[in-house]
Amino acid sequence: MPFVGALRRNVLILAVCQALMLSGSSLIVAASALVGLTLSVEKVWATLPIACMYCGTLAVTFPASVLMKRIGRRAGFIIGLMVGFAGAMVATWAIVEHNFVAFAVGSFLIGILNGFGQYYRFAAADISGEAYRGRAISWVLAGGILAAFIGPNLANYSRDMLMGIPFAGSYASLLILYGLSILLVSQIQIAVPGEHERSGEQRPLAQIARQPKYLVAVIGAMIAYGVMNLVMTSTPLAMASHDHEFADTALVIQWHVLAMFAPSFFTGNLITRFGVTRIMSAGAILLLASILIGLSGISVFHFLFELVFLGLGWNFLFIGGTTLLTETYTAPEKAKAQGLNDLLVFGMVALTALSSGFLHEWVGWRALNYSVLPAVLLALGMVLWLGRRRQTD
Questions:
Q1: How far is CA 219 from CA 227, 321, 322, 346, 348, in A?
Q2: What angle separates helix 73-97 from helix 48-71, to the nearest 10 degrees?
Q3: Which of 149, 277, 294 is nearest to 235 (CA)?
Q4: Model-level pTM?
Q5: Highest mean pLDDT among 40-49, 226-235, 282-291
Q6: Contacts of 243 (CB under 8 A, 6+ apart)
Q7: Exposure string (b/e) for 59-81, b if CB count within 10 Å is 16 or more?
Q8: Which of 21, 30, 49, 138 could join 117 via S-S bond, C-beta 3.0 to 4.6 A?
């Protein structure tokens, strides 16, 4: 299947929708903890709203996969975007009214949008032949490059645009991002799953999940996203506690998001050339490097380079894990196999988002960095084990 025509158009739409979704997410990462700090009674609850966003993603990720198996990707994406649009309205109102609970509820609804949107990458994999699958996934995730510039800058420049209330304008701007996404998704051309995919022969989910490739793919993605999210979510709090300006925080988040997604233009080709396990191993090593940078100082440049290496490591380990996962299921099995993967991944994301505020407040930035070392070493060990196993098979 050549990577041209309708396939290129659909992947481009998915990439732009991914960019808009991640622009909203990077805006929220830059602003949410600071809004939570203003609205909450206790500092330790500052990251609860962003944790609620990830809980919304967690709650819907498996049902979204099953629903889209029945009604198709396009209808599912539109449902998610409409819920997220409502969430942005609620969150904006909550900031204006200084209502912490409503802000958390709005964040949860935005998380539902993200839960559906996480399947943009799988939609690209579904419509691409095996030879182009890694490239299609990478292209969609490369949409995050725009998010690196749009999200943090939008948070910074729209911060006081609505009634002079900090960040109310930032959350109001999400309405534009999500509204545009609805228009784009309505133009995508992805067929509703056929009868074979909806009711074909399937293995039990436990049997699929016991495959070594599936285990390494899921655990690698969980650790990639969990470590990245724990450190990233705490960064605005850590920088504020060390008296860095919000403009510097926005810059750090911008370069972090850019590092997360810029390599996606060639990650798929690297996987094809060097093999998925080697790229995943490189990702784990980059995560280790980011931790060492974070432990070496607290200047803006230390935060900047830690977050850049963190983003690069996430890219290689997560895209590699996603590509490896596509080798483990048949078409009738993909909804539950993908659903379980994202359920576990975003369960870890929700846990790290919730715990990041507590960890930063109770043990500090340095200890938080130390806490992720065992997980990264585990990911590296498992990927190396699978790579050696694949060589001997």
A1: 12, 8, 11, 12, 10
A2: 160
A3: 294
A4: 0.76
A5: 282-291
A6: none
A7: bbbbebbebbbeebbbbbbbbbb
A8: 21
> Is residue 196's pLDDT more than 70?
no
Q: For residue 42, what are its two tokens? A: 């206790």
Q: Which two tokens stand for residue 338?
A: 């993908």
Tokens 């109001």, residue located: 172
CA distance 155 to 26: 9
CA distance 201 to 208: 13
Residue 28 near residue 147 (C-beta atoms within 8 A): no
Q: Annotate 119-144 with b (16+ C-beta within 10 A) or e (fewer).
A: bbbbbbbbbbeeebbbbbbbbbbbbb
Q: For residues 267 and 315, is the Cβ–Cβ distance under 8 A?
A: yes
SS3 29: helix
For residue 226, give the H/E element and its range.
helix 212-241
Residues 6+ apart with CB under 8 A from 96: 162, 163, 165, 168
Which residues touch 299 (CB under 8 Å, ≥6 apart)? Answer: none
Residue 38 neighbours by CB distance under 10 Å: 15
* Greatest Cα pair distance in the chain: 64
- In whole angstroms, how far apart are CA 224 and each of 294, 310, 318, 345? 17, 9, 6, 9
Domain boundaries 5-190+205-392, corresponding CATH code: 1.20.1250.20
